[in-house]
Amino acid sequence: MNSIQIDRLRIAHRDKVLVDISFEIRSSLALVGESGSGKSLSLKALLGLLDPTLEMDLEKRSDFEWKKGESVSLVPQNPFTALSPLTRIQDQMFFSLERCEELFGMLGLDLSLLKRFPPELSGGQLQRVVVAIALGSNPKLLLLDEPTTALDPESKEAMIVLLKNLQASIGFKMLFVTHDMGVASALCEDICVLRNGEVVEAGKMGDVIASPDKEYTKALINAEFKTRGFRN
Length: 232
Known about the structure:
The chain has helices at 39-47, 79-82, 97-106, 123-135, 153-170, 181-187, 205-210, 215-223; strands spanning 4-13, 16-25, 28-32, 55-61, 72-75, 141-145, 173-178, 190-195, 198-204. By secondary structure, the chain is of the alpha/beta class. It has one domain (4-227): P-loop containing nucleotide triphosphate hydrolases (Rossmann fold), CATH 3.40.50.300. The strands form two sheets. A six-stranded mixed beta sheet has the order 5-6-7-3-8-9, sandwiched between helices. A three-stranded antiparallel beta sheet has the order 2-1-4, covered by helices on one side. The longest helix is centred in the C-terminal third of the chain and has 18 residues, at 153-170. The radius of gyration is 18 Å and the shape is globular. 36% of the residues are buried. The model is unreliable at 225-232 (pLDDT under 50).
């Protein structure tokens, strides 16, 4: 099995079903949808971070043992809140110096940044550090929660190129949660559109963008929802 199969992800609160979906991660998959569609809730479920009041049924298949923080890692949305501002970067890496040197080299970061505190770094540098931490365990699956939202346009474009190059060289798979169709189409090969906790359309990114089947998908594409203030 080369792909990761989520045969069923069902999340419920008492008698109300919040999410009931299935999808396949072949290489890179974008989960997109309006606020409240269930995409961020799904990401939390895969990380085992759901509120204990919620019920979850997860059936998945992969070639690796699913371990959060090891085979499965997260790149969070905001690099400015992902790290402790009072702790030097080197003390938040949790890897050997040799591994840090390797990761920083891959991400185009100067080793001198290890001695600095997070507030001393730019947004782009911080996000690369966060990516380095996520890649430290050599994960099979990288979960990305809007990793370009807090970046300026130039840094955003650079991050997209970097993630694609890293995936090509390392070979991990990506599940990308986003409301930004521009970033999703630039980064991911496949797309899964969610509405009210259900999949309404899925397929190859180029095909869906060029010729969506559902009116809901058409509306999302035409809305350019990064300008509409939608959130996860």
